[in-house]
RNA sequence: GGGCGGUUAGCUCAGUGGGAGAGCACUCGCUUCACACGCGAGGGGUCGUUGGUUCAAAUCCAAUACCGCCCACCA
């Protein structure tokens, strides 16, 4: 980009208004300067102010992450709302921070180490963590700079990290409390095991997929040797861990089998036939092999029948157990399946195999098939607190937008299972539980949760070792809305001032991971909701409507977009596209729209400055002398009312579109053009009104596009920065329906004149005579200079010679036929108008002739229909007359 | 198996009961004294399909088709 940039010398505010603005807006120099300013003078908050509080905590990005479009989307919305509220007089806190992202970061650092040929075990726990912290210091926080580049008006002095001392204490406090309330417990359960990263995963971290596999029907011989029972399975390699065969209690087919013993194929072991309601009679053979250690359903059935639960698959997903015959020992689970199948066939216990779609769980991080294994882990009992959240959602204590996601939120909570919070990782909050050699558990007391048990004098006589596991990442981010504000210190002024927070803004894809868990933690630990509203937005998809992902390489890098178009243009594209939680397909044309809009605004400012070379004086005396002035002030009030309303209901996309339309189509296209005659005459009232309206426009737009608006505000000589200015309020006295109607007449006249000019092939810059007739003639006459300027015409009382007429509501315009005109084409077009009018008339007459319509429809609708009919009739007559005149 | 969203102009999308809109693309004309990242004048749609409710349906209801997403322990 070799566009010449302005000089960067410091200019005092009194000179700023005379600063030359480039013809084309160059966002880069401007944005860089404001980024620096907002970092040097962040939008800090005062916890003791009298202003009402407004607070949004950002979804903390991964500490080592890079800004992607999802962040850009989130933070644009967050910043827009925060800036809006700040200007509305709120003490508005944009609370920034980062997440340690346990498994993601650990996998990433391990990968880096692997390239050096080092594993985490080579370094040991302490050495490894040192490396992760080094990595965090080096790369962590890059994303904060990227958020700053986006224009985030955060209070950077309050930046928090989930592994900060204070936030780590919060996590510990949480666990200790849950433990002593009996809600955190250690239990042996079936968990999702990722054999690659060697850790358990919560259900949410497992992606369900369907793979083509086989359904095997096996023969389990009864002890008597004469009969058999057949079972269906997709995992024959797990038969060695079988503890029973189960059938449904009502299943007549197996009535005589229940209680008898069957032999597990390929072994000499016998297991009983039991009954359980969980068995589906219709599926497979109606008989199910029960393997408590390798299947959640089987585990539950095993619990009910007190079955043992031996494992035959180890942490590396290999068959290792005394129960496994030698020839299968050490085989990988998938290899084992084929080998076992062959052996079963040989033994004659394999009845059939058929192709079958097998559900498979994949680790979100490593994409490795997850192995359900039996393991002792820490769980959190969420039963009661989920109910409390459901109540909060039902009573409207928390409101989810759009509403349909409230149902998603609710349904998940209603079917929630206990949360496995322990992870076999090193990067994270190590679990504050200690064990003595006998395996007894020691957890710090509630009144001193930060005291390690191995430092506790009471246990000095014991050999205590701390649990090596760490907590699930979400077991710290669930506290984010209050841990960032000082909790567990409930006397912290920020906690007191800003909690509960106002709105939570995030993508619907983390409702379960994050939103619901914050809701639970909020009620559980603070006794209150963590936020009043949840604003969920959609995902940003690529041009083809596919999810963006690193592996597909179809991602759009927001930083590249900013580098090419500027952050305001990107922000514009993000808010423009946002509607009702819908996914948005990436479309670069929206960024160009933003870029073009910014340029338009920039040039409108340049124009305004030509007449406001002393800056803007908002106190200047201004009379509403001209129709354009009265009109734009009236339209401005409507824009302010609409936009305020839309932002208050979080409809940022509609607010953006409303302002785009107002600024471009009303202010630039009509007002600036219509005001030119008065401005050229030096009308001081019009100048003052131009200044006022433009100032309000900058304020209205500022939350959406903060850079250019701040720059222009400053360029007009305002000393306080725009971010701290007051948002416009509606002034009802300025709403002027008459002015709007009259200006509409003027617009009709201008458009019709231009249309006639085009029809008659008259050069755009050639001034031509025009005669006006009709009901609204007086309005036009009163504003003759405006019409003459906008349409390049000279009003006359009559036209000599051949002429062309155009009929619009309340007006007839006649133009001399000076240029060449394609009469046939003109007539054809008028005929088309006639046909359409005739249709309209017929329709209206039919409607008005319908007694049901006249009786049932609201009076104003009927009146409007009558007015429309009259108007159409008038237009029709006029056009017919002008056509006749031509002939 | 259950739930949700989408289907409107060539493209990307707004619009949720009273005569269909935007941006881009397209046609024609403009170096008009803020802006060619612009200005002006235009062309283009039986609002997926079928049925219903209503004086009135893109909009509400019910089916249906296609596209997409989420949830789920029939092995």
Brief summary:
This protein has 28 helices and 29 strands.
Protein described:
The structure is a single chain. This protein is α/β, with parallel strands linked by helices and 887 residues long. Helix content is 45%, strand content 16%. It has a four-stranded antiparallel β-sheet with strand order 6-5-14-16. Helix 19 packs antiparallel against helix 20 (652-681). The chain has 28 helices and 29 strands.
Please describe the structure with a list of short key phrases separated by commas or semicolons:
alpha/beta, four-stranded mixed β-sheet, RNA-binding
Overall form: elongated
Strand element count:
29
Oligomer type: single chain
| Strand content bin | 15-25%
Radius of gyration: 37 Å
> So how many helices?
28
Low-confidence stretches: 1-18
Structural class: alpha/beta
Average pLDDT rating = 91
Query: Separation of termini?
Result: 59 Å
**Proportion in helices:** 40-55%
Please give the order of strands in the largest beta sheet.
Answer: 6-5-14-16
Largest sheet: 4 strands, antiparallel
Outline the secondary-structure elements.
Elements: H1 13-16, H2 27-40, E1 53-57, H3 69-87, E2 91-95, E3 97-98, H4 102-115, H5 120-139, H6 142-150, E4 160-161, H7 165-180, E5 184-194, E6 199-201, E7 206-221, E8 228-233, E9 244-247, E10 261-263, E11 270-275, E12 287-290, H8 296-304, H9 333-347, E13 350-363, E14 371-380, H10 383-395, E15 399-401, H11 404-414, E16 419-420, E17 422-423, E18 434-435, E19 441-442, E20 465-466, E21 470-471, H12 474-477, H13 480-483, H14 493-498, E22 501-507, H15 511-526, E23 531-537, E24 540-541, H16 558-565, H17 567-577, E25 584-585, H18 588-611, H19 627-648, H20 652-681, H21 684-701, H22 706-715, H23 737-759, E26 768-773, H24 777-782, H25 784-791, E27 793-796, E28 803-808, E29 811-816, H26 823-849, H27 851-856, H28 859-886
Parallel strand pairs: 1-2, 3-4, 9-11, 15-23, 22-23, 24-25, 26-27
Antiparallel strand pairs: 5-6, 5-14, 7-8, 7-13, 9-12, 10-11, 14-16, 17-21, 18-19, 18-20, 26-29, 28-29
Helix pairs in contact: 2-22, 3-17, 4-5, 10-11, 10-15, 11-15, 16-17, 17-18, 17-20, 18-20, 19-20, 19-21, 19-23, 20-21, 20-25, 21-22, 23-25, 26-28
The structure holds one RNA strand of 75 nucleotides.
């Amino acid at each position: 980009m070799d566009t010449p940039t302005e000089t960067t010398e410091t200019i005092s505010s009194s000179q700023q208004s005379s600063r030359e603005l480039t013809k084309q807006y160059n966002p880069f120099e401007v944005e860089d300067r404001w980024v620096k300013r907002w970092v040097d003078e962040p939008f800090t908050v005062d916890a003791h102010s009298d202003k009402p509080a407004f607070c949004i905590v950002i979804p903390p990005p991964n500490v080592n992450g890079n800004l992607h479009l999802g962040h850009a989307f989130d933070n644009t919305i967050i910043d827009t709302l925060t800036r809006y509220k700040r200007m509305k007089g709120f003490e508005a806190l944009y609370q920034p921070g980062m997440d340690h992202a346990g498994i993601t970061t650990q996998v990433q650092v391990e990968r880096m180490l692997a390239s050096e040929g080092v594993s985490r075990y080579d370094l040991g726990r302490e050495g490894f963590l040192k490396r992760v912290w080094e990595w965090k210091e080096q790369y962590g926080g890059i994303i904060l700079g990227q958020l700053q580049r986006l224009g985030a008006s955060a209070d950077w002095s309050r930046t928090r990290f989930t592994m900060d001392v204070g936030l780590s204490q919060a996590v510990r406090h949480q666990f200790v409390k849950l433990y002593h309330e009996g809600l955190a417990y250690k239990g042996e359960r079936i968990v999702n095991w990722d054999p690659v990263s060697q850790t358990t995963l919560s259900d949410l971290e497992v992606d369900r997929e369907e793979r083509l596999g086989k359904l095997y029907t096996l023969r389990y011989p009864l002890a008597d040797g004469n009969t058999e029972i057949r079972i269906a399975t997709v995992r024959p390699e797990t038969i060695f861990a079988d503890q029973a065969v189960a059938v449904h209690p009502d299943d007549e087919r197996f009535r005589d089998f229940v209680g008898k013993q069957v032999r597990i194929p390929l072994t000499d072991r016998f297991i009983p036939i039991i009954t359980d309601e969980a068995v589906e009679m219709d599926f497979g053979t109606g008989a199910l092999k029960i393997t408590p250690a390798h299947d959640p359903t089987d585990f539950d059935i095993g619990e009910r029948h007190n079955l043992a639960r031996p494992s035959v698959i180890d942490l590396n997903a290999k068959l290792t157990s005394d129960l496994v015959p030698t020839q299968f020992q050490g085989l990988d689970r998938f290899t084992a399946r084929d080998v076992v199948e062959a052996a079963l066939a040989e033994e004659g216990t394999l009845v059939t195999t058929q192709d079958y779609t097998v559900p498979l769980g994949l680790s979100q991080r490593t994409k490795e098939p997850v192995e359900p294994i039996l393991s002792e882990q820490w769980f959190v009992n969420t039963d009661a607190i989920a109910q409390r959240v459901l109540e909060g959602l039902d009573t409207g204590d928390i409101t989810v937008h759009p509403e349909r996601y409230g149902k998603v939120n609710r349904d998940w909570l209603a079917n929630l299972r206990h949360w496995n919070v322990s992870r076999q990782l090193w990067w994270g909050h190590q679990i504050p539980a200690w064990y003595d050699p006998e395996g007894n558990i020691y957890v710090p007391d509630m009144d001193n949760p930060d005291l390690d048990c191995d430092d506790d004098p009471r246990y000095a006589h014991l050999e205590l070792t701390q649990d090596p596991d760490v907590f699930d990442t979400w077991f710290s981010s669930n506290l984010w809305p209050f841990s960032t504000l000082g909790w567990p210190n409930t006397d912290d002024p920020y906690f007191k001032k800003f909690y509960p927070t106002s709105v939570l803004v995030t993508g619907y894809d983390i409702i379960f991971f994050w939103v619901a868990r914050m809701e639970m933690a909020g009620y559980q630990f603070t006794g209150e909701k963590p936020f009043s509203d949840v604003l969920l937005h959609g995902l940003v998809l690529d041009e083809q409507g596919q999810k963006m992902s690193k592996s597909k390489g179809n991602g759009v890098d927001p930083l590249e977009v900013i580098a090419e178009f500027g952050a305001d243009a990107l922000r514009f594209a993000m808010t423009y596209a946002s509607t009702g939680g819908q996914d948005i397909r990436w479309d670069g044309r929206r960024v160009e729209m933003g870029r073009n809009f910014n340029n338009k605004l920039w040039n409108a400012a340049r124009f305004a400055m030509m007449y406001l070379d002393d800056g803007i004086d908002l106190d200047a005396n201004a009379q509403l002398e001209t129709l354009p002035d009265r009109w734009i002030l009236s339209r401005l009030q409507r824009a302010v009312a609409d936009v305020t309303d839309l932002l208050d209901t979080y409809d940022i996309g509609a607010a953006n579109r409303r302002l785009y339309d107002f600024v471009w189509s009303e202010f630039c296209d009509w007002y600036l053009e219509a005001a030119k005659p008065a401005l050229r005459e030096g009308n001081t009232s019009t100048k003052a009104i131009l200044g006022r309206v433009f100032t309000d426009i900058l304020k209205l737009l500022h939350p959406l596009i903060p850079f250019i608006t701040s720059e222009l505000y400053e360029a007009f000589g305002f000393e306080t920065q725009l971010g701290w200015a007051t948002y416009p309020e509606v002034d009802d006295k300025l709403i002027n329906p008459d002015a709007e109607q009259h200006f509409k007449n003027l617009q009709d006249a201008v458009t019709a004149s231009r249309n006639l000019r085009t029809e008659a092939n008259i050069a755009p810059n050639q001034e031509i005579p025009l005669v006006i007739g009709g009901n609204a003639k007086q309005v036009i006459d009163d504003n003759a200079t405006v019409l003459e300027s906008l349409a390049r015409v000279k009003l006359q009382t009559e036209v000599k010679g051949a002429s062309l007429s155009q009929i619009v509501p309340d007006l007839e315009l006649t133009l001399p036929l000076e240029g060449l005109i394609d009469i046939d084409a003109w007539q054809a077009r008028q005929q088309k108008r006639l046909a359409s009018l005739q249709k309209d008339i017929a329709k209206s007459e039919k409607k008005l002739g319908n007694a049901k319509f006249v009786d049932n429809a609201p009076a104003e609708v009927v009146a409007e229909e009558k007015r429309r009919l009259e108007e159409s009739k008038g237009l029709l007559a006029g056009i017919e007359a002008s056509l006749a005149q031509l002939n």
